[in-house]
Structures are given as C-alpha cells and as structure tokens.
Amino acid sequence: METDGRYDCLKLENQLCFPLYACAKEVVRRYRPLLDELGITYTQYITMMVLWEHRSMSVKDIGETVCLDSGTLTPLLKKLEEKGFVERGRSPDDERVLTVTVTEKGMELRDRALSVPGAIASCIPLSAEDAVTLARILRDLKSALNAQ
Amino acid sequence: METDGRYDCLKLENQLCFPLYACAKEVVRRYRPLLDELGITYTQYITMMVLWEHRSMSVKDIGETVCLDSGTLTPLLKKLEEKGFVERGRSPDDERVLTVTVTEKGMELRDRALSVPGAIASCIPLSAEDAVTLARILRDLKSALNAQ
DNA sequence: TACTATTTAATTGTGTACAATTGAATCGAG
DNA sequence: CTCGATTCAATTGTACACAATTAAATAGTA
Questions:
Q1: For residue range A31-67, what is the model confidence (pLDDT) as tens digits?
Q2: What is the DSSP letter of B69?
Q3: Do A98 and A90 contact (CB within 8 A), yes or no?
Q4: Does nucleic acid strand D have an atom less than 7 angstroms from the CB of A95?
Q5: Which among A33, B16, B115, B140 is most buried, taking Cβ atoms within 10 Å?
C-alpha cells in the first residue's frame, strides 16, 4: 500500500459522490416494502406523485419534473396504464404529445399512499436539524447543476 | 387542486428523498464523459477504486464495500475482465470464493484516472462548507441506516 | 406554399440494481 | 465422521436509467 498519498484522491473513503449514491439507493430500498403493498415501484411512485398533483400531464412535462427521459418513462407509463392507474392518449391539439391522465383508481391509490411519507420519515434516521440542512444543500446543488 | 393540504405530504416538492435520488443521478452523469475516456462506467469506477487500494479481493468483500450484490457484480466483473483490468479466479483455500485481482493494465488505468476527482470537484457546484456538511450528514445517515 | 428545422415519444442497445433462487463448497453440532 | 445448516457466487426475472436514433407532427421561414 502507498504511504505518500499520491492516489489518496482515488480512495473510496475520500469520495463525496459515493455516499450520495449509496444513501440514495439505500433510502429507495426503504420504500420498497411500503410501495410493494401499493403494487408500485419507487420510480412509479414519484411519477404518480406529480400526476396526483396535476391530474393530467404530457410525458415531456412529467420527465422534466421527475428527471427522467422518455426511454425510462414510456415503458413505466405503460405499466401504470396496465395497472389501471393512468390513461395514455394523444393530445388533440398536438398529435406529438402524449397526455397522461390519472384514473379514478389512480386517485384512490393516493389515499392508500398517505401513510408512506410518515412511515419513511420514521425509518430514515436523520435528526430534524440534519434533515433541514440536507434538504437545503441538495436543493441548492440540484439548481446549480441544472443551471450549468 | 386541493387547498386544505391533506395531501401535502405526497407532493414531490415536499420530499427529501427525491432530491437525494435526483442529485445522485445527476452527479453520476457528470462522471460519464470523464469515465468514457477511460472506457469504464461509474459503477465500474468505484469497483476499480477499491481494487486499486486492495489489489485483490473476494466478490463478497467488494460487494460490502461498494454496496452491491453478486447479481450486479458478477456481470460487471466479467466486463472488467474482458477489458483486461482484472483477473477472476477461485480461491485455492475455499472454492466458493472468487478472488478478483487487478492486472498490470488495471493499475495503469489508475494513473489515467488521477485527473477524475479534480475534474469532478470543479464541476460539482458546492461550497467547501456545504461539501463538508453534506459529507458528514451522508456519512452519519449511511452508518445509521446500516445499523438498523 | 414548399421545405427545412424543431419538437415530441417511442425504440434500441447497454449497463446497472436487486430480490429470489440455485448449486456447489464448507462448516459444525452430535 | 456425517449430514443438515450456512456461505458463497452465479443465475433468473423484473425494473429502471440513459445515450443515441427514429419517425411522425408541427413550426418557422423564404
């Protein structure tokens, strides 16, 4: 092993990005058992979240909101449609855009999902203070990354 | 749209986990052009990082270090072997364990990777202060999650 | 009006992720 | 010493994730 530290910057323990990547995966894993009961995945959950709020949206707008492209969203939305939570149809105004609309069953899912945020909060071991700080830093980081 | 806020906890903007998930993806994306020149992906990069440090490790130990299971690592290590960066072979002591060892070419890759951390640091828009705080919070979070 | 440029989803191809299962090797209690 | 339990890596199956390309529709311009 080296002692002079020429390669210290390539040690996993000195990386900032790795904890970010690892924590994100671990947190998503915590959602799994909760979302299994609703019959959806984490990615489907955040997609439903924006649809619960807006009722009806284009694939493009959904993608910009949840940071996913059509390569991920097209199959995901087809799955949500198969499960009966959304309907997909071309916009009459512009045949290029596909409008995704929440169904009645999709809105019922929202009520069943009400307990999820609380359950997650109670199993993510983060002090109230750190949670606020983390939220602030990540918000700033995301907008700075988008601005680049 | 609701005004009473019964569903506020299900709004994307009120989530802490989503920025974590989105920032992690965005940061990994920043690595892509840099790692493309080395011919590896981000996951392959963090795997090489632990191998550069330890030279030789079992799949299990690699997995615990980089938080990946054999389902992800087995195909990934085969790709690294095809590229000539590692060698895979069963341990003589215990035929169950597969020992992964960095090759000479793998060690040469390390020198070519030396510029990556600096390049990433300069394109991740985070103040020195926030970087330290973020690292601390994520480190605490990860160890608390592991302890559960 | 023609005709190019742009916008939009869908598709293709590669590479993670991970739960669950499998099968071989090893361990350990009786 | 033996046989059931455990430990490993590999495999199977499902679901992202995203760059690059495609194809259809629309917008913009000469």
A1: 999 999 999 999 999 999 999 999 999 999 999 999 9
A2: -
A3: yes
A4: yes
A5: B16
Find the residue closest to C20 using CA and C1' atoms: B71
Domains and CATH numbers, chain A: 10-117 (1.10.10.10)
Residues in chain A: 148
Q: What is the DSSP string of chain B?
A: --SS-TTGGG-GGG-SHHHHHHHHHHHHHHHHHHHHTTT--HHHHHHHHHHHHHSEEEHHHHHHHHT--HHHHHHHHHHHHHTTSEEEEE-SS-TTPEEEEE-HHHHHHHHHHTTHHHHHHHHS---HHHHHHHHHHHHHHHHHHHH-
Strand C, nucleotides covered by protein (CB < 7 Å): 7-13, 15-20, 23-27
**Per residue in A59-111, pLDDT tens?**
999 999 999 999 999 999 999 999 999 999 999 999 999 999 999 999 999 99
Of B10, B27, B138, Cβ closest to residue A110: B10
